[in-house]
Amino acid sequence: MKFIIAGGGIGGLVTAIALKKIGHEVRVFESVEEIKPLGVGINLLPHCVRVLTNLGLQNKIAEIAVETKELVYANRYGQLFWSEPRGRFAGYKWPQFSIHRGKFQMLLWEEALKAIGKENLYTNAHLTSFEQDDQEVRVQFVNKQTGENWPIEHGDVLIGADGIHSELRKILYPNEGGVVYSGNVLYRGTTKMKGYLTGASMAMIGSLRQKMVIYPIVDSLDPDGNQLINWVGNLKMGEEGQLTVRDWNRQADKDRLMEIYKNWQFDWINVHEMIANAESIYEFPMSDRDPLDKWSFGRVTLLGDAAHPMYPIGSNGASQAILDTDALIRAFESTSDPIGALRIYDAERVPAAALVVNQNRQKGPDFIMDLMEDRFPDGFQENEIPHEELAEIMLKYKQIAGFDIQTLNAKH
Ligand SMILES: Cc1cc2nc3c(=O)[nH]c(=O)nc-3n(C[C@H](O)[C@H](O)[C@H](O)COP(=O)(O)OP(=O)(O)OC[C@H]3O[C@@H](n4cnc5c(N)ncnc54)[C@H](O)[C@@H]3O)c2cc1C
To answer: Which SUPFAM superfamilies does the record match to this protein (predicted)?
Structure first.
């Protein structure tokens, strides 16, 4: 079969590599003129690393990522109240990686080039419309630089992996409107600084009113012994903090952020100093979209953020896109009927992804931060930590997001 993929982001590229591996013809059309290593850190959880491992990519990813050892939670006084090993350190068959999003995309681009050839991987090709009938789908792309249309592309299946502002989703759901703003603004930055805790720990500090997520994304140290640390501050702003444009590269005011976090100077990490020494800081409205009932229409479907943009809670955005790929591949292995395969894909992934979107709206695993803040606003004594209650919340999220250890380790 011939697949046309709109979007050369993480979901589109992994899908292209995976479809080629099972013998299909694939062409990828990416809107931007040039692929650049944009973004900051993301996490690849064991359930998606399983898929990437089966595509032969684990060792290459390991070379540019940090293998995450543990996840810790602390309150706004820096008191640690939860710690759990992650990935292989927790007994999973697959590691968890923290990685620079842009470097990961570049790696996937190179791998896709090798897999499908440069004659099948295009930039400057922005999807604008499609038509389909019993025989095929016909897709129109435009070069946004010149405004010129590409020749109509013919294929058996069209996959819209074109991100949160998906054009294909807009065509399929013309009345949906914009993204849904959460009332929170995210501040994303990177800082070269001394490592903390294990040197490969992901730390969540504060509550959902004022939070900071911190993790290293490069293993090696620079000549001054510093590691590259990725961080994301999350501030509850309400409607007045509404940022209208969801632009991944909008610069934020460092001084204001330093003031907000000025008391966050703990013996195991100095958050205030980390912000002060940041290279650059980007602000971004935390948004998602309401889950859809259906992603597939005949020969056309959605994948990744185009299908289910979600809050970046629980480190699941990229992982869920790669779980879509996994389900799509199994569906197309099970039948040679493209429309039937997409029905199977929808049946598995539409409800599963909706659960994660909704769970993230309910704070996901970070619910434990608000629980501790509400119960112990002035800090806690060690013997007051409700370990069992916290453990239950953490396990429930893993089950919903598809990475509880028993279920996952039973897979190959
Ligand atoms: C520039 C950028 C920076 C990001 N930085 C971060 C980050 O720091 N942290 C984080 O957690 N997540 C980040 N993300 C989002 C993250 O990559 C996704 O949430 C996740 O990986 C799911 O990937 P995806 O392939 O579905 O979407 P994306 O990674 O967003 O990829 C979508 C791709 O589709 C292309 N595209 C858009 N419209 C069209 C069209 N009409 N036709 C053809 N191609 C189109 C886009 O240029 C993009 O390359 C970023 C995304 C982008 C595009």
So the answer is: FAD-linked reductases, C-terminal domain (SSF54373), FAD/NAD(P)-binding domain (SSF51905)
Provide the token pair at 140: 């129109």
Strand partners, 155: 137
Q: What is the pLDDT of residues 287-327, one digit of tens each?
A: 899 999 999 999 999 999 999 999 888 778 899 999 999 99
Q: Whose CA is nearest to atom 7 of ligand 1?
A: 39
Helix axes 46-54, 10-21, angle to 10 degrees: 40
Is residue 93 a contact partner of residue 31, using CB atoms and an 8 Å limit? no
Q: Is 153 in the pocket of ligand 1 (CB under 6 A)?
A: no
Whether the CB of 160 sits within 6 Å of ligand 1: no
Q: In this structure, what are the phi and psi dihedrals at residue 80, rounded to the nearest 5 degrees? A: -80, 130
| Residue 179 contacts residue 288 (beta carbons within 8 Å) | yes
Instruction: List the structure tokens of 364.
Output: 């996901």
Mutate to test the pocket of ligand 1, among 15, 17, 36, 42 (most ligand atoms within 8 A of CB): 42
> Nearest CA to 132 among 338, 7, 299, 294?
299
How many A from CA of 9 to the centre of ligand 1? 5
Handedness of CA 204, 207, 209, 210 (dihedral sign): negative
The string of pLDDT tens digits covering residues 173-209 is: 999 988 888 888 999 999 999 999 999 999 999 998 9
Kindly state if the Cβ of 11 falls inside 6 Å of ligand 1: yes
Q: Is the CB of 321 under 6 A from ligand 1?
A: yes
Q: Could you state, in order of their start, the residue ranges of all structural domains in the chain?
A: 2-67+98-178+291-361
Does 169 contact ligand 1 (Cβ within 6 A)?
no
User: Under a CB-based contact definition with an 8 Å cutoff, are residues 167 and 128 in contact?
Assistant: yes
Q: What is the pLDDT of residue 276?
A: 97
Beta strands in 237-326 (DSSP E): 278-288, 300-302
Cα 212–chain centre separation: 17
Q: Classify residue 95 as left (phi > 0), alpha (psi -120 to 50) or beta.
A: beta
State whether the beta carbon of 278 lies less than 6 angstroms from ligand 1: no
2-67+98-178+291-361 homologous superfamily: FAD/NAD(P)-binding domain (3.50.50.60)
CB atoms < 10 A from the CB of 161, how many?
A: 30
| Ligand 1 near 31 CB (within 6 A) | yes
Q: Give the separation between CA 377 and CA 340, rounded to whole angstroms.
A: 54
Pair of tokens at residue 381: 């004594």
**H helices present in 127-230, as ranges:** 167-172
The C-alpha R_g of the chain, in whole angstroms, comes to: 21
